[in-house]
Design brief:
This protein has a single domain, classed as Sortase, Chain: A (Beta Barrel), CATH 2.40.260.10. It is α+β, with helices and mostly antiparallel strands and 262 residues long. It is built from four helices and nine strands, in the order ααββββαββαβββ. About 5% of the residues have low confidence.
Length: 262
Amino acid sequence: MRQQPQRRPLFRFLLILCLLVVLFYSAYQIITIQGRYQAEASLHSDLLSFKPTDTPVTDPPLPDASARPASSPRPVFHPEIAALRALNSDVVGWITVEGTAIDYPFVKDPDNTFYLHRDIYKNEAYAGTVFMDYRCEADFSSFNTILYGHHMKNGSMFHDLSLFAEDDFFAAHRTGTILLEDKDYRLEVFACLVIRPDDPMIYRASGWENVPQADYLAYVQRLAVSFRDPGLVLGDRVVTLSTCAYVFEGARTVVLARLVED
């Protein structure tokens, strides 16, 4: 009985110790997360210096300009993307989506996991890099080209894809751009979906010659949170932008856009 009063100080000490551990761990987590966000913001700011300008140039020129056939289009050339490719040959192009913070270069690697947590310089980075599905063609010749990006809680990377689930935002924001070294594309957004990561239609990268466009569009419309008729015709292509969602376990937010060559 005499030792019972001594147990209370020990209990209080252990309780305080546990609370201090939780406090320090929480502070460490906050500092770590903020550091990741700051690193991503700093890198993004640096990368914006490589963003292609609105005025592409023709390069390299033909030795004799008169040798180019009159019907031959002048090649579009973005030296900024060429400069990025000189730093990392995995670089494919640049994507921008109207009304969002999506304004990034993107890459392609034979492994879809490589850039999940690596920056464009291949250094470890929690936010990763926007990347193309390895099964797709880098020249966007596939019917469906898939780009992935993290849903960062500070609003960076592909976080803003979730905005297209809101009717007003979807109605007001319809376009984006894909810029390659030698070609410009316009994106015409037509759907937003929340789906599983193994969806066999949305994440299909090949074999589209066996899937009628009408069947594809009917499937998309059935699952879509937001949708408008894109007016697809034979030969049209689409771009699928994918990121994580938190609606259910493993959920993905996907925005679909028709690809139009400028």
